[in-house]
Amino acid sequence: MERLVERLEKAVERLETVCQGPGMCGDGPSPGVAQYVQAFDAILSGPVAEYINISKEVGGDVQKHAEMVHAGFVTERALLVTASQHQQPSENVFSTLLKPISEQIQVVQNLREKNRGSKQFNHLSAVSESIPALGWVAMSPKPAPYVKEMTDAAMFYTNRILKEYKDVDKKQVDWVKAYLRIWNELQAYIKEYHTTGLTWSKTGPVATEGAKAPSAPPTGAAPPPPGPPPPPAPAHLSSGADDPAARSALFAQINRGEGITAGLRHVSDDMKTHKNPALKNQGGPIRSGPKPFTSPKPACSVNPSQKTSPKQPALLELEGKKWRVENQENAANLVISDTELKQVAYVFKCTNSTLQIKGKINSITLDNCKKLGLVFDDVVGIVEIINSRDIKVQVMGKVPTISINKTDGCHVYLSKNSIDCEIVSAKSSEMNVLIPTDSGDFTEFPVPEQFKTVWNGQKLVTTVTEIAG
Q1: What does pLDDT average to in each consecutive run of 10 residues of the chain (469 residues)?
Q2: 312-464: CATH topology
Q3: Which helix (H) or strand (E) holds 371?
Q4: pTM, rounded to two decimals
Q5: What CA–CA distance (Å, rounded) separates 407 from 393?
Q6: Of 77, 281, 399, 461, which residue is the least packed, with the fewest Cβ within 10 Å?
């Protein structure tokens, strides 16, 4: 890891040296560089540079992460230069060109995975959840909304940072603003230059796997020579279509009205395949109609989190004031009993398991879990459920707030002492809250998922709506 950080620091120093030249990194127009590459350089020298500088002041893992993020943007700039000088390649070649960006996204996300006990975990998570936005180059026809979706994922963690440091450390607040500004300006950039997808050159050679572009424009270098002109259209396509005599003959035939069918031959029953199945068994090519339309897919998956990774060891241990429960599978009797008020529990990537937490604890977080059952006594802070599926939570004592984010399928069983609990949900579905009755049973109530928003003349008013039917 130290060697990787050292290499990234050298890359940053080289880029900063290049950016000192005239017309570099968005300081002014540069000959031979496409306009949208210059606009991307303005993002590098603007919000990205500001984010790096503030990250250096914050230090620690945040600084390391910022250097990796910067390397990702430099890698993406190289692809933009390639696209500005080449025509769009085949999907296989494009997948190869995207591979360096995908690998750099993986590097950024790995730092978070290897430092889950870091005090700057919220910073690392904000970056790791949003860095796949660099994959907008593979998205079509709407890359800008994809970047916004990744930005929204980061805001879950940036809001935590703001809540923790709002009146304590202004530097942390400035860090959040600088980081989010990168993605906001990238969205505006995409809408202006790449509205429906990455813009490729209309001239020049078709991009190949070996097509490489400098990560930063070299000082004083002459612009590359223009590529060869596109090949002429085939003769059978260009001739005839523009022939006035041919057009006149075509319209003359159309204007014949019903007489146009006079030359058609009658097809008897013995010549129809649906009435004479034997014709289907005869040789000859079978003509089929056009294939149905399918929506375009990204040229390749640029989200490295989908790749299979080696199985991690199961954990249930106390690390400082944090209980870590990770990578548990088919564990039916997990119990945390020796708890204190200042402790928190972080449950990560547990599948088909049951966890019981006894006593009073500060907070509980379930992250990326599937088919998990959680039973706890008392929580004085918040219970958070993130990126999970098929979760069941039962409150035996009291809890003030339960947050459900990006989760599909969540049942919350409340106790009589926790009826006044606040449940906050976002980007989730199939949520149900079960309220205890006097008979000891539970009554199930679904959490609304559909809303109606109208303008009342002064502001937007949102109300819960139900699907008719």
Answers
A1: 63 53 43 86 94 94 94 94 92 90 92 88 92 92 90 89 88 94 94 93 85 48 46 44 55 59 65 64 51 50 52 88 92 90 92 94 94 94 93 94 93 93 91 91 90 90 72
A2: Pectate Lyase C-like (2.160.20)
A3: strand 370-379
A4: 0.49
A5: 13
A6: 281
Nearest Cα to Cα of residue 134 among 66, 182, 83, 85: 182
CATH architecture designation of domain 2-193: Alpha Horseshoe (1.25)
Indicate the residue type of 77: R
Cα–Cα distance between 197 and 176 in angstroms, integer? 28
User: Nearest-CA neighbor of 447 among 416, 418, 423?
Assistant: 423
Q: What letters, b where the CB count within 10 A reaches 16 and e where it falls short, cover 81-97? A: bbbbbbebbeeebbbbb
Q: For residues 126 and 161, what is the distance between their CA atoms, to the nearest angstrom?
A: 9
Could you tell me the CA-to-CA distances from 100 to 284, 304, 407 in Å, in that order? 48, 11, 31
Q: Closest Cα to residue 14, out of 228, 258, 219?
A: 219
Domain with CATH 2.160.20.70 in the chain: 312-464
C-alpha pair distances (Å), 13 with each of 25, 83, 111, 344, 350: 14, 25, 22, 41, 42
d(CA 57, CA 125): 19
3-class secondary-structure state, position 209? coil
Contact present, 394 and 375 (Cβ < 8 Å):
yes
